[in-house]
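ok so i was messing around last nite and threw this chain in just to see what happens. nothing serious, just curious
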Amino acid sequence: MRSFSNTYIFVFSLIMVTIVAVLLSFVATQLKPIQEMNVQIEKKQDVLRSVGQAENAAEAEDKNTYINEEFARYITDSYVIDFAGNMVETDAFEVMLNLTVEIRKPREERNYPVFVYSETDGSKKYVVPVRGKGLWGPIWGYVALEEDLNTIAGAVFDHKGETPGLGAEINTGWFQEPFTGKTIFNEAGEFVSVEVVKGGADPSNIHQVDAISGGTITSKALEAMIIDCMTGYVAHFKELANN
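result:
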């Protein structure tokens, strides 16, 4: 059996590690634009899903083209505001892509993106992204409001690693659909958001939805996420509603 010196083995190992590292770096560089595009498509689709659009994306011949066209057709405006409701000169989509960075800031220092969906009859809906922390990792979603800036027109949520069959149910229709029609302001005009109630919401309460049975921690984390993120839009919503 042929033997090799320690120096030979060390040099050979170093060369192989270098080659593998270069190859991995090359592959990562080549795949990065594709990964970034997929993230953008996913977020555009979720914005559209919150207002009941893009439901046929899976059946499209070219999903990416379909989503881009639907987004360009229905999302007629987007902008960014600060906590006081003032316009901020930055790109709403870029802020949404980096929402993880924004939520680490105090509420008063965050940028808040808004996406305006226009119906064919001229009416509008306003979509805002939300992001927070679940039981095992990040949770996020998109909440669409009717033109009154109070009634929820639709909501979609998702997660990174919540428990299957329990907290992971936040991304299912049966959990999301009850948010539609709920309101985030009470009769006095105070922001109360939507309460996710363990044990069953009061059907007559327009500020409550059912929590997930066995997934209370994730359910309450989602409630806290909506409150935390949407508080930053209150000043803007009230100003729009009064105009």
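not much to say yet. The chain has one domain: 47-242.
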